[in-house]
């Protein structure tokens, strides 16, 4: 498929002043979806997000048309998200895809937590993340496409089933499943949950701070504490482990920001339960990626490297079990 040519044909439908698309280039990253940056010849900067033909779709992933609808719904709450310009039709020749306005900023977590360019905005990022999550969780359910609903026990059962399928024997995981099962909180009224709200899926500008929440592929209805816990998973701190929120802030700043924007009260213990469950989920995902590499199903170096991170999640789980005992 010639993506630049298809974008050039689509350009007049994206802007009355445009005749073609220029500077189309595929961006790095993304395991199952492609991201292309391009410009219209009237100067409009855009992003194409598409699912390649034949690409496997994660069990919990939303169709891209639903993802675009979720971004539009989040925009109604005031949350910082890209502007959706177009959801592609089969006639567009781009497959399952949508086009959104390109934001300016950084998504690489390591740079956000370390580079001097972000020194000014970094201290307020955790509070701002709390505010944005409260906005997202306040989305009207009637504005949303059909979404799956999950809770703590459902997530535990799903990931334990995946773990058992791989016939792995990891004592730390075994202990974590039983510990989390015994301490799982009761379900609450479900809200829109982003599902992958973490450093790495946030666009941060060195002067404006958080300007965009990206990658809504795993959005669903569930416990709001799930999103707050996920951004605190140590794997998303990029070496700044003393800063539990994304490597740039502390728990209280996140919770204060959430409350300040009208979010319901969430106890730290509930957040940390979901943080621990997030570490366990990521550990199981790492184990799956190693299995695909070891079996030869996916011989990429990326899968092997991620597979090695199983031990990191085990360390995180031991620390959390000791701290929360």
Please provide a written account of the structure.
The protein has two domains: 3-101, Phosphorylase Kinase, domain 1 (2-Layer Sandwich); 109-324, Alpha-Beta Complex (Aminoglycoside 3'-phosphotransferase, Chain: A, domain 2), CATH 3.90.1200.10. Helix content is 42%, strand content 14%. The protein has helices at residues 3-14, 64-76, 109-114, 125-137, 152-165, 171-183, 224-230, 251-260, 268-294, 301-307, 310-324, and strands at 21-26, 34-40, 45-51, 84-87, 96-101, 191-193, 202-205, 209-213, 220-222. β1 (21-26) and β2 form a beta hairpin. α9 (268-294) crosses α10. The longest helix is centred in the C-terminal third of the chain and has 27 residues, at 268-294.
